[in-house]
From TrEMBL:
Domain FAD dependent oxidoreductase: 9-370
Keyword set includes Hydrolase: no
Species in which this protein is naturally found: Aeromicrobium fastidiosum
A single GO molecular function term of this UniProt record: oxidoreductase activity
GO annotations of cellular component type: cytoplasm
Keywords (A to Z) from UniProt: Oxidoreductase
Gene3D superfamilies: D-Amino Acid Oxidase, subunit A, domain 2, FAD/NAD(P)-binding domain
One Pfam family hit: DAO
UniProt keyword DNA-binding present: no
Name used for this protein in its record: FAD-binding oxidoreductase
Amino acid sequence: MNQHQSSPIVVIGAGITGLSIAHHLLAASDREVVVVDSGDVGNGTTPAGAGFVAEWSTVIPHLGPQAYALQKYSLDFYRGIHESGRDVHFRGNGNIVFFNHEDTLAAGLAAIAAGPCASDRNTVVSAAEIGALTGGAVDASAVAGGVLMPSGIQLETGLAIQHIAEGVEQQGGTILRGVTMESLEIDGGRVVGVNLSTGHIATDSVVLAVGAWLNAALAQVDWKLPLVPFVATRFVTEDVGLSPDMPTLQGKDFPLWIRESEGGFTWGSTHGAAPAHRLGGTWNALGKDERWRQDLVDAMAADVDRVAQVFPKLAGAQTIREIQGMPVYSVDGGMFVGEVPNTAGLFAAGGDNESGVSHGPGVGRLLADLVLGRDPICDPTRFRLDRFDPQEYPDPESVGQHYVRGGVGFIADAHREPMPLS
């Protein structure tokens, strides 16, 4: 446990994870907490998130029971926000994972049933039932069936993160907007301070929750995690008459997610995503002008006809908003949460595998437990930062090639061709 109770805990990053960490630190201790972000609250990837939260471990077996504990905690956390009366566009409509083909449906259901977190609360649904549950938004003839997770929810991530930020400040926390971390101050293998663009803070505890920029921050202490950031694109359409009771949906045979938002679709697919390191550029700034990829927007637009075969109302629907963010994938599909092995007092959270909103509050609780020396909400071993040798995967391309060797998945597909010449 930290002994220097007079020094603040500094959290770098004001996305859903960083603010959730700050919230839980303040709720569980009398330590001062300072959140630092180079932009504004939620200026990074969080607002580009799908905004639906589910017990993903029940249908994605490799996530495991530790992540399941964080998912359940996050669901309760968001329900608490809703029940407090705060409008975050909360809907408890459930989530559907659907398959387009009978053979993949059978294989998928078998894998789910054999998983360590298989839940009897989930229900196998037929193609006709998916059509009915979505109010006809899904063409039942285009799918084979799927699984309904009735506990799933959806919300607007931008509204949720603003609420959490307000709570941090109401609890006495400080959020420094437009301030960058320039360097960590290390003495004898321990954090003793952090240098910001506005000055120095003496501290024995720093938490890095900086998403796609995590390895750049860890380079200061010569540590590296096996991560590959992607640039991902989201579309929001005009109102096409979708039912507000429609469950959110995730496709397995062609990876995409889609949900209702103010009568229209909010959706994303792998056609609008690519590994950041293969796109060129510095990718250090958060400004849209410096990282906007029109080619990925165009690829998403070209994918509309294919997606509309399952969701007919998408055909001809006008896209009224385009969003891009940088989710980060890890080499084994698991998150990294804990203390940096070679630097006492330095903690990190990252590699959310495009499920930062689902895991954010749970990760916030877990990391706060670890920083404060409390009994953790779940066994943190699965998330240790030293479960891979930093030299085993020296760069994002090596992580992508690991997926290629595994043979399947959109991360593998994105890395099959040779690296483009810079």
